[in-house]
Amino acid sequence: MPIVPSELIEVRRISGKGRGVFARQLIPAGMVIEIAPVLVVPEDDMETTELAGHCFLWSEGKVGLPLGYGALYNHSYDPNAEYLDRTPQTKVYRAVRDIAAGEEITINYNGTPNDRSPVGFDVRE
Predict the structure, then answer these.
(1) What is the pLDDT of residues 11-29, one digit of tens each?
(2) Which of 12, 50, 112, 124 is a good FRET partner for 105, with 20 to 30 A between their CA atoms?
(3) What pLDDT sits at residue 2?
């Protein structure tokens, strides 16, 4: 069953990937999809939890866990969205191109849409 946080997006299960965030309607390029507060915690506190796979490297010895649906956007080397740091503890997710209704919203975990650096796991696209 999809989780519907807004008129704009919903969370669905994806075979082989777990969960992902999907557009419920057309999202034009440049539109803010979500603004997510971030909990910043010591990296050691997260290493042994399932939350570790949902965190961003933040600063020396710290990771950031985005709230809302920020931790559920899947990686792509050809993403349709990006994340930006708005304040020291807030991430903004924004469309980098038009995203069709029903399309999965993806980000590049490296922080820049065109960065092809390895991300530490096998990428399924």
Answers:
(1) 999 888 789 999 999 999 9
(2) 50
(3) 62
